[in-house]
Amino acid sequence: MAKIAILGYGTVGSGVYEIFQDSDFSKKIGESVEVSKILDIREFPSHPNPGLFTKDFNDILNDAEISVVCETMGGLHPAYEFTKALLEAGKSVTTSNKELVATYGTELLEIAAAEGVRYMFEASVGGGIPIIRPLASCLLANNIERIAGILNGTTNFILSEMINNNREFDDALADAQARGYAERNPAADIEGHDACRKIAILASMAWGDFVDYNNIPTEGICDISLTDVRYAEKFGAAIKLIGYAEKQDDKSVYACVAPMAVECNNPLAGVTDVFNAIMVRGNYLGDAMFYGRGAGKLATASAVSADVLDIVRMKSLKKPMRWETGATKMLEPGKKKWAYIVRTKAGQKEIDSEFNPVKTVTGVVESETGFITEPMCEDEFLEKIARVGAVKYIRMLEN
Ligand code: HSE
Q1: What is the CB < 6 Å shell around ligand 1?
Q2: Domain total for the chain?
Q3: Any idea what the CATH number is for the domain that residue 20 is in?
């Protein structure tokens, strides 16, 4: 019997407890798993098993019988200090905490490797969707060329409401908050920071060197209007908040988070509501899309629990998944080529003096033209568009 503990009895932590109460995994992994302690500073008087709760972290740290701990507290502190102490004490840790993994993952993975234990974080990206383990094992034979993902459910819900139900941004955001999708501080979702941490984790996993989220240019969806949505539609595209990472020929990595126009024949365009999807391009496999619930109690808890089961089943691993300490060489954002959808009040002559539009539309807004540029480096685009003048522009995700 493997004994485990849970740090933080919130949405995900209580989901993990429920899963291990409901299911006997002994047939699947050759051993049963029991939650023997839960850390939370709150009281849960009506819980069926109040004796499990402690407010003292040392009760878990010093319990020699506990071999795996699920960190579902969220936030950086004290989650970082607790995780570090647990790993140093020879306990494996599984987590859904993307902020912690993106910030301290390098150090925590190193400590885990040195101690011969594991630090696993399947639930940190895409909630219940398997994506970390596929990158670490199923896709190992491929060189990953690029990753493009809808990594935040809240913003996908907001954009879907704008696209399908003609709602303004503020109205759709209020609904997302009322439904409990948005983070406590919605800025993390709508300004793209949550997706930024997630794409940093995926890029670090895909290419084996740490990608610092501080080096990833990040734009959110606060400026996206219903008019932008309608322009994208005219061009056969849907606006999605995309976490994007790509390996360059010179081995540098380009990454960004930005709202992008995704052409309707790209499966990412059909991902609506709170769903997440991650499209991974491998040199042998081509594109594979991982789709499902990127948030939610039991969906996310199922990924935390699967990490626990994996640890119990495979007690010794010679080379656990990890990335190296050395920071990744990043491509300067201005050097990345994109095609853009541009909205402008400039006349056709001014447009043609700088661009060779691939497609043009008029009539969406009076005295405005929309056009798609040829692909060009961001630096070059910014110079040209400064001369022409734009109401708005948005990158197009290349299929
Ligand atoms: N606020 C996040 C989202 C939760 O909307 O995707 C999961 O990380």
Answers
A1: 127, 152-154, 181, 183, 189, 194, 294-295
A2: 3
A3: 3.40.50.720
